[in-house]
Design brief:
Layout lengths: L1 H6 L4 E5 L4 H9 L5 H6 L3 E5 L2 H8 L5 H8 L4 E7 L10 H14 L3 E6 L13 H4 L2 E10 L2 E11 L8 E7 L3 E5 L8 H4 L9 E2 L6 H4 L4 E2 L3 E6 L5 H14 L4 E5 L4 H10 L4 H6 L3 E5 L7 H15 L3 E5 L1 H7 L4 H17 L3 E7 L3 H12 L9 H18 L9 E4 L11
Parallel strand pairs: 1-2, 1-3, 3-4, 11-15, 12-13, 12-14, 14-15
Antiparallel strand pairs: 5-6, 6-7, 7-8, 9-10, 11-16
């Protein structure tokens, strides 16, 4: 209602049954919405009445409520706390709501009606109003791993296409609601068809010897998993990849959930990489989000915004393992996120490297094979399986005190069975 009056010059009427106008004005002020000023400017009218009077007035041609709406040229109306409307003639409540909708339509008012539901069973909670309304939005709040998740679902909206499923949202101070499309929801056709299509260009890793093993580096827009035990050197490899991009004038984005920025900068400095200088020159962008209060739709929306603004040519995520633990036991949520992030990078032709702490083969294969199959024909070879097994044996020996060199393997998902030197 506030933005309708302010931004679109569409005055509005707010109808209250239980919440006093002064309390509504006070609560709105927390979002920096000055409803009193809108009232003084005759762009908003707040009416405190009863449900029965409201229903009767909408059915009258000389309704005082509609007269006040017409006086300020109202185009929007918000009714807070509506319940199932009884028919004054003892008829069906659906018919009563239909009469209400007709009255609003007759006055050319775009209406938003808030109905409170206390039932957890959405099918049982359906009111007759749901069948009459043109659009139905269902807001939910539920506990998720001791946190709280708010979501919105477009149950129906007549006359146009809309995004299905439950999308998360937050209530932001000074702004109101901010909605984030669910991470697995389809985006543009261009994104779904994105691929590493250039067979000749290579992206150098910046690591002496590794580019030779990879026949010049990674393919442009390819997806690479760097798999290794903790302390094997995955983060060092990522920093060298970023530094090499800067040396070539290419922008790099590094996303980390494991280490705060100060620690990443310190680690980079210890191997001779002045990451802060690269950031100052806009050749690198370091983004950190603490994994404690993690909401995947919001997180992915932030990544999309950063990619749109910074336009990197290289991206490193350190590490995917933290995403797995933050998303809990739902393997599907993790696969959906990985699929979405791979599609985003391929759409923008970004060469992406993902660090991940070594898992057992079954877990690794099940997670990433299913996540990537819709994008590329992933088929990890028996050679890689044997290397995973060998790495697990060496790691076990390392834990028992028999110090050995612990290897790290980079798996390029964009060229399975491609010309990678083995050994």
């Amino acid at each position: 209602m506030y933005r309708g009056a302010r931004q679109f010059n569409e005055p509005g009427v707010i109808v209250l049954f239980e919440v006093a106008p002064d309390k509504l004005i006070r609560d709105a002020a927390l979002f920096r919405w000055d409803l009193r000023e809108l009232e003084r400017e005759r762009r908003l009218k707040i009416i405190f009445t009863t449900r029965q009077v409201f229903q009767q007035e909408l059915q009258q041609a000389d309704s005082p409520l509609l007269a006040e709406a017409a006086e300020i040229g109202a185009r929007r109306i918000f009714v807070d706390g509506l319940i199932q409307l009884p028919d004054s003639n003892g008829g069906d409540s659906r018919e009563a709501f239909h009469l209400l909708a007709e009255g609003l339509h007759r006055e050319n008012l775009t209406a938003m009606l808030a109905l409170e539901s206390t039932s957890v069973d959405t099918a049982a909670a359906r009111a007759p109003e749901e069948f009459v309304a043109d659009t139905l939005l269902r807001l939910s709040i539920e506990p998720v791993q001791r946190a709280v998740l708010r979501s919105v679902e477009v149950v129906k909206s007549r006359g146009h296409e809309y995004a299905l499923g439950r999308h998360s949202f937050r209530i932001v101070n000074g702004q109101g609601l901010d909605v984030y499309r669910r991470v697995q929801a389809p985006r543009s056709l261009q994104r779904e068809r994105g691929a590493a299509f250039d067979p000749t260009s290579r992206v150098a890793t910046g690591i002496p010897g590794l580019d030779e093993l990879l026949n010049g580096g990674y393919y442009v827009a390819s997806t690479t998993l760097v798999v290794g035990t903790s302390g094997a050197g995955k983060s060092v490899m990522a920093l060298q990849f970023v530094a090499e991009g800067a040396r070539r004038g290419e922008r790099s984005l590094m996303i980390t959930l494991d280490e705060p920025p100060a620690q990443v900068l310190r680690n980079a400095q210890s191997i001779g990489i002045d990451l802060q200088s690269l950031i100052d020159r806009r050749l690198a962008h370091l983004w950190y989000e603490p994994p404690q209060e993690f909401e995947i739709d919001h997180h992915f929306a932030q990544i999309e915004a950063i990619v749109e603004d910074f336009k990197p040519q290289r991206v490193v995520i350190d590490s995917l393992s933290t995403y797995g633990s933050s998303l809990g036991a739902s393997e599907r949520s993790f696969r959906d996120f990985f699929h979405a992030i791979v599609a985003l990078m391929k759409e923008r032709q970004i060469t992406a490297v993902y660090n991940i702490i070594l898992m057992n083969w079954v877990e690794l294969g099940n997670t990433f094979r299913h996540a990537v199959v819709p994008l590329i024909p992933l088929r990890l070879s028996a050679w890689f399986k044997s290397r995973i097994s060998a790495l697990a044996e060496v790691a076990e020996a390392h834990r028992r005190g028999r110090r050995q060199w612990v290897p790290m393997y980079a798996v390029n998902l964009a060229c399975p069975g491609g010309p990678i030197r083995r050994g």
